[in-house]
Amino acid sequence: MTMSLEQVARAEAEVLLPTYERNRVLFRTGRGCYLYDDHGERYLDFLSGIGVNALGYNHPAVRKVVREQGARLIHISNLFYHDYQAQLARKLTRISGMDRAFFCNSGTEAIEGALKLARAYARAHHATGSNGAKPRWRVLALENSFHGRTYGALAATSTRKYREPFEPLMPGVRFVRSGDIHDLERKFDASVCAILLEPVQGEGGVNPVGGEFLQRARALTRESGALLIADEIQCGLGRTGRWFACQHYGVKPDVITIAKPLAAGLPLGAILTSNAVAGAIHPGLHGTTFGGGPLACAVALEVIETLERDGLLKHVKQVGGYMRRQLEALKQRHSTIREVRGMGVMLAVELGSADAAKFAAAECLKRHVIINRTHDVVLRLLPPFIIEAKHVDLLVSTLDAVLGQWEATGKQKEGR
Ligand SMILES: Cc1ncc(COP(=O)(O)O)c(C=O)c1O
């Protein structure tokens, strides 16, 4: 039975946990950079399912693997071999310079696993007690971070409104001001087993952490034997124009977490790490029922091969550069825009107020352009990697009209 938007919304209000305030659009299909609603109306997507649909919708290569592998084998558990985990791990270790992978189902799970890995590594390498060494168990994370909603990941997520209702969280996390090397040095000591950071913060408003800070975090952790964990769940796998955002700064972390675009929308995350760190793990220490199943891994393999085959990292650099220039030009025309920032096709337009950002995101949707508001005042743009200049032009002309409307009418209302 096909239900109308009203029927779906009413049914959800009755039977789902009220975790989301959804936009009132019911999507039924997608193709390329476009989504289509229940009336067949077309929307240009500059969010890609929050940074997931890097190849857009209904990509023929993905469709083929889903159909063929879906008919062969979807799930087998990690008690048996299948054809794709090793192949996918080989690809991921090659592009990241890491040695080993562990597959899970989401970004949050990759973070939980990485935190466990940091503690396991510290225990294996920095014995406590008899030699008088201090226990290493603390994690340094950054202000404005977002790493997920489970207890460990949430403990490393700085946003108070996400944390407070669920405290006490996992103990041992301290927050460092992003980009503040002095604060990092002050808080880093021999009790720290890991620094966890997003090289480009996503939910926190698209903030690149910067080369100097990242390099200092690398040096501190290397000297002390703590781990540097790069959360590349949102910024990794090509979104910034390189496979990993860390690579822009010549920094090689000990652990990289990935997820979002990895399997084109099927749930798949991964922890990538070195042989040295992997030595702290043995059978039974960590695991998952669903993680790394044959369907998700076969699709992920195809995603990586398509990114390579179609030269999409280079394309991201080019189209991302064009988008950035067009948005900078837009800033010259609108006093509401405070800043344009980001890398590749992970860009942000920061506005002067939360009301302006709320208005802009809602008006864009009315005009069938999907963008996202994050960190109250930031319009976040995470389009599929396959966008072209014509899509950017439509986004920018829509934003131009919407911000013009805000400046003519909304601002006055806000002032009342
Ligand atoms: C940087 C980062 N880390 C972790 C997560 C959590 O990932 P997931 O929602 O797949 O559990 C997200 C999700 O937005 C993220 O952006």
List the helices and strands and how they pair.
Elements: H1 5-15, E1 27-31, E2 34-37, E3 42-45, H2 48-51, H3 60-72, H4 85-96, E4 100-104, H5 107-125, E5 138-142, H6 151-155, H7 160-163, E6 173-176, H8 181-187, E7 192-197, E8 200-201, E9 207-208, H9 211-224, E10 227-231, E11 255-258, E12 269-273, H10 275-278, H11 294-309, H12 312-333, E13 337-343, E14 346-351, H13 354-366, E15 369-370, E16 372-374, E17 378-381, H14 389-415
Parallel strand pairs: 3-15, 5-6, 5-7, 7-10, 10-11
Antiparallel strand pairs: 1-2, 2-3, 4-12, 8-9, 11-12, 13-14, 14-17, 16-17
Helix pairs in contact: 3-11, 4-11, 12-14, 13-14
Bound molecules: pyridoxal-5'-phosphate (PLP).
Please state the average pLDDT score.
96
The percentage of residues in β strands lies in 15-25%
Largest sheet: 7 strands, mixed
CATH topology of the largest domain: Aspartate Aminotransferase, domain 2
**Spatial arrangement of strands, main beta sheet:** 4-12-11-10-7-5-6
CATH class of the largest domain: Alpha Beta
Annotated CATH architecture of the largest domain: 3-Layer(aba) Sandwich
Q: State the oligomer.
A: single chain
CATH superfamily of the largest domain, by name, is Type I PLP-dependent aspartate aminotransferase-like (Major domain)
Count helical runs.
14
- What is the total number of structural domains? 2
Q: Which distinct ligands sit in these coordinates?
A: pyridoxal-5'-phosphate
Q: Strand tally, please?
A: 17
| Span between termini | 48 Å
Please bin the fraction of helical residues: 40-55%
Unreliable stretches, pLDDT < 50, 5 or more residues? none
Q: Which secondary-structure class do the elements indicate?
A: alpha/beta
Give me the Rg, rounded: 22 Å
Overall body shape: globular
